[in-house]
Amino acid sequence: MQVDRMPQPMQPRAARTREVLLRAAAEVFAEVGYTRASLVKIIERAGLTTGAVYFHFKSKEGLARAVIHEQAADVEFPQGEPGLQHLIDITTHLAVELQQNTLLRAGVRLAVEQNEVDLQEYEIYRWWAERFKEELAAARLKGQLLPSVDETAFASLLVAAYTGTQIMSQLATQRADLPGRILSLWQCLLPALAPANAIAQLTIPVPGSAGQGGA
């Protein structure tokens, strides 16, 4: 799954080359960040010629923007009926994905660090907020939300809280404790979001019981 900026249709060989390049860039960005990454390092990792790289991206900045926009391309979101339980399942699943999905991890790292390099790409945050808002809208139809809840505002709050939580987890444990932190986040947020009878019907694992593998 990707944000709205989709690449134009291209020949299969060109598409494969772009895919190899994007993933090599994601590996390098995930390892060293934007500032320390270089096109030379990315080209070497991809095993491509300079000409092949510049056919698709004119600069390191262009590569970084692509990784940010397409960060969720490899994520297989959990199945389920839209609503509050599905939203919880998605966010806990993403916590595990951030430990092992290089493209997602790189895109998130670049989105967080972009102020340092003046990329100014807010669209990805808007995309995640819209994704979460869809689940909240479904929850509203099921009577799972408190009357005072604003779905748009809460979706943006969730994106911000998730972003901050994963940064703290990265610094503390290289995201090894991120699933538990996200479950704790939900335990704090749910009383402000849903009535007690709706919360009682949700499945929320005890923090620390979710997948805790290292990044």
From TrEMBL:
Q: Which PROSITE patterns match?
A: HTH_TETR_1 (PS01081), HTH_TETR_2 (PS50977)
Q: What is the lineage of its organism?
A: Bacteria, Bacillati, Actinomycetota, Actinomycetes, Kitasatosporales
What domain of life is recorded for the organism? Bacteria
User: What keywords are assigned to this protein?
Assistant: DNA-binding, Transcription, Transcription regulation
Task: Please indicate if the UniProt record lists Calcium as a keyword.
Answer: no
The source organism is Streptomyces violascens
Q: Gene3D superfamilies from the xrefs?
A: Tetracycline Repressor, domain 2
Does the record bear Translocase in its keywords? no
NCBIfam families to which the protein is assigned, alphabetical? ScbR_bind_reg (NF041196)
Name of a matching Pfam family = TetR_C_45
Q: Which InterPro entries is this protein grouped with?
A: ArpA-like, CprB_TetR_C, DNA-bd_HTH_TetR-type_CS, Homeodomain-like_sf, HTH-type_TetR-like_transc_reg, HTH_TetR, Tet_transcr_reg_TetR-rel_C_sf
What is the protein name given in its UniProt record?
Gamma-butyrolactone-binding protein
Portion annotated as DNA-binding: 38-57
Q: Which residues form the HTH tetR-type domain?
A: 15-75
